[in-house]
Amino acid sequence: MESVISNNNSVESRSADNKFFASFALFITFLVFGGFALNWISNPSNLGRINLWTGLHGAFSATWYILLLAQIKLAGKGNLTSHRALGKLSVILVFGILLTGSIMVFEFYHRMAGFGIFNPEDAQARVRAGSFLGGAFLQWLIFLVLYALGILNRRNPAHHKRFMIAAAIQMMPEGLNRAVHLLSLPGYSMFICMFLVYLVLMFYDWKVQGRLYASTIFSVVLFCFLVLTMHTAFKWQAWGDWSVKMISNI
């Protein structure tokens, strides 16, 4: 009898856990997609600025978020065969996100340099360029690290899904920064929003699971490292000079 009760509790716990992560991932996706939608609705002309690389980057990123939702649903239903098969597709999507994103950054830098905003002859412009370049590439590097840790922990469902969720949070600036700019909010409000998202996850784990998972703590540490670095090292003149020199030689 006790065994039956224990099994029922375990099934109910897994069901509640799956529902939370499905809703949580959907909320993150809504924020990201909503940022883009709000920007395009308010400024339809921005749609005309989409070129091949920005279009591909957007397609890869959007598909990755949709795949995340599908993967959580498949795992919740116990359909691990399809879950593993689609997981292989995510590798292609991540590669596409990083490749097209890097090309976009390269093109954006040279466009801004042409306008004088990132003028390589101006010391302050090099600082602005260094802050942009450092933030963009560190964001994607951390995304890659979190995704890789998710793959490496695929036999540990608790850590696997938390690393994948953290990877999704890491990509939130791509949509959030557009909403923040449109609403004339301070730049740091984007990071506050992301930290609040992490707080929801940590509160759930503490309240329901009775613990904080090392995977979530590590993800938060990486997020804090990104924010700290963007407001310190990436604003140093030495970094700006070096990063502009490197990208100018490509």
Would you summarize the structure shown here?
This protein is an all-alpha fold.
Question: Overview of this structure, please?
Answer:
The chain is mainly α and 250 residues long. The protein contains 9 helices and no strands. Helix 1 runs antiparallel to helix 2, helix 4 packs across helix 9 and helix 7 runs antiparallel to helix 8 (214-230). Mean pLDDT is 88; it is low at 1-9.
Write the layout of secondary structure elements.
Layout (H helix, E strand, L loop, with lengths): L1 H41 L9 H26 L2 H36 L7 H30 L4 H14 L2 H10 L5 H22 L4 H17 L6 H12 L2
Helix pairs in contact: 1-2, 1-5, 1-6, 2-3, 3-4, 4-5, 4-8, 4-9, 5-8, 6-7, 7-8
Shape: globular
Beta-strand content estimate: under 5%
Count of alpha and pi helical runs:
9
Tell me how many strands there are: 0
Largest sheet: none
Mean pLDDT, to the nearest integer, reads: 88
Task: Please mark out the parts with pLDDT under 50 across 5 or more consecutive residues, or reply none.
Answer: 1-9
Structural class: mainly alpha
Order of SSEs: HHHHHHHHH
How big is the Rg? 20 Å
Instruction: State the distance separating the first and last CA atoms.
Output: 69 Å
Percentage of helical residues? Answer: over 70%
Keywords for this structure?
single chain; 250 residues; mainly alpha; 9 helices; disordered N terminus
